[in-house]
Fold Recombination protein RecR.
Amino acid sequence: MNHLIPLDNLVAALSRLPGIGRRTAERMAMALVQDDKGLMRILANALLEADDGIANCERCGNVTLSAINPCELCTRHRKDAQILCVVESPADIMKIEESGGFQGRYHALMGRLSPMHGTGAADLRVDRLLGRIADEGIAEVLIALGTDVESDATASYLKEVLSNREVKVSRIAFGLPAGSAIEYSDATTLARAIQGRQAI
Amino acid sequence: MNHLIPLDNLVAALSRLPGIGRRTAERMAMALVQDDKGLMRILANALLEADDGIANCERCGNVTLSAINPCELCTRHRKDAQILCVVESPADIMKIEESGGFQGRYHALMGRLSPMHGTGAADLRVDRLLGRIADEGIAEVLIALGTDVESDATASYLKEVLSNREVKVSRIAFGLPAGSAIEYSDATTLARAIQGRQAI
Ligand SMILES: [Zn+2]
Ligand SMILES: [Zn+2]
């Protein structure tokens, strides 16, 4: 059968999306080809408009409208503007904002230390972080990274880099998630919850 | 936080892909925004090129290059060109071609009878099927639809429509799939396998 190069190229591009394997990409491509409501063109236009209209905030790394840069979170009044919350990615910023639990500013590293994936300190936005601490009069850096090995390594690295700065360094608490039972918690979570116990 | 309309639109378009829920679409959109290898534009271009370069064969419904229409399967020599295999979609044509088990021509209905989804006989390519039977001297229509209720209804409908034509109507056999055991087969599969028993 004739090779359908445009279809192959579409499958290849879709396969590069996170969590999309070859079979899923093939199914998507066929659905797009079969779609009679112009989805192919709608999706293409949405991509082109996002590519033009969305940017990373040059200050915190958050996603923002290209026309509003630095982003609102960087320029709007924030009650705790002297606290800088360091996260891995813009998705984390959205998540924390949704939680309503933080009123300071953000800084996305755009990754974490990962020798396995070839991500070193120079690939993270650490110089920018140090610059901001000075420029913005930051009193506390709150590290909001996950609980895996790479996040721990990144947190340790940041602690070291920040040790000679006039800034408090903290990390979000680890413990039992809301609504969870001791009985069903894993050992590491329990150990960290006990280690982080607080007086009541 | 500022509403990122281009990002919302991208999530909405991605959500329309088959099997992609809102959360997955959000994760995809963020990955696209974060991607530093131009995936957003690569995918947009692949979509636009597929939209331009891929079409449905005006004869059989198969996907084909827009420049090669009718498709190769319709015009190339086929050993059993007098057998017309009726399927639901172009994906089925690909599947059967890959199996190597069929050497005739194809006809995709682009759906199946489904009162629930509002798909009636007029939405299927049945008129085109009748025209092809006459034009191409088809001797046998092989119905290659699935085993669900809607496929059965579609097969029955086709049988009725074709009953006053000079054409043999057959349907692919149902039975145990390759490599399966009686012990683990479901009742319907077993019943159909017994019903379709053949002399050996
Ligand atoms: Zn910002
Ligand atoms: Zn064709």
Remarks:
- Residues 175 and 192 of chain A are 6 Å apart (CA to CA).
- The pocket of zinc ion (ligand 1) is lined by residues A 57, 59-60, 62, 70-71, 73-74 (CB under 6 Å).
- The radius of gyration of chain A is 21 Å.
- Residues 2-52 of chain A form a domain with the Helicase, Ruva Protein; domain 3 fold (CATH 1.10.8.420).
